[in-house]
Design brief:
Elements: E1 14-17, E2 22-24, E3 29-30, E4 37-39, E5 62-65, E6 70-78, E7 83-91, E8 96-102, E9 105-106, E10 109-118, E11 124-132, E12 137-145, E13 150-161, E14 167-170, E15 175-182, E16 185-192
Antiparallel strand pairs: 1-2, 2-3, 3-4, 5-6, 6-7, 7-8, 9-10, 10-11, 11-12, 12-13, 14-15, 15-16
């Protein structure tokens, strides 16, 4: 074991991780090699030491860009006739969220991002997306270009799934793996991405 940390709050679970950073639900950023805090918790307006933000890993996957010191996070709300939110760039110093990709709906399905990871150069975000409804969901892998603010690749992997949500892992030299469960099987898809 290299280091260990006891978490004090229920919302301090990990909502994003890479080889460079670990992001907690309070938007605290930790160095995975040493366990030291790279970005502290953004405090609330009260005198108590409560974090201003509280995100959950299932609904708000998040990654931290060390170069810009911005978060990339997904937060969307869907109703029968409207869509609010989507994929954001969040500046923790100014506390400004900029919508870079609006959430999508098609008939009764809505698009949720369940996991994300950054490329080594932090230009691209790899997204594990689900087209969800109250029943089975569809799984997609997508690549979003943070400079151009657009999706540059998207592939539907499975339809009508029930199982556990996808996980994305990024290696060196463009290696990206997505893992998911569907129809009583466990699937791993490996990509080598070159731009």
């Amino acid at each position: 074991m290299v280091w260990q940390r006891n978490l004090k709050r229920y919302d301090e679970d990990i909502i994003g991780a890479s080889s460079q950073t670990i992001v907690l639900g309070t938007l605290e950023v930790i160095d995975p090699k040493t366990g030291t805090t790279l970005e502290p918790v953004i405090g609330g307006s009260t005198k108590r030491k409560w974090p201003k933000y509280s995100f959950r890993s299932l609904n708000n996957p998040t990654v931290f860009r060390k170069k810009t010191r911005y978060f990339v996070l997904f937060k969307a709300k869907y109703s029968l006739f409207s869509t609010q939110g989507g994929l954001y760039l969040f500046n923790p110093k100014q506390e400004v969220k900029k919508l870079i990709r609006k959430g999508k709906r098609r008939f009764i399905r809505h698009l949720n991002v369940r996991n994300m990871a950054l490329s080594e150069d932090e230009r691209f975000v790899f997204l594990a997306q689900l087209w969800e409804t109250r029943g089975p969901y569809h799984i997609e892998f997508a690549i979003f270009d943070l400079e151009k603010k657009q999706t540059v690749f998207k592939e539907r992997l499975e339809n009508n799934c029930r199982g556990y949500f996808p996980i994305i892992m990024v290696g060196r030299n463009g290696h990206v793996t997505i893992s998911y469960g569907c129809k009583r099987k466990h699937v791993i898809v490996h990509y080598v991405i070159s731009f």
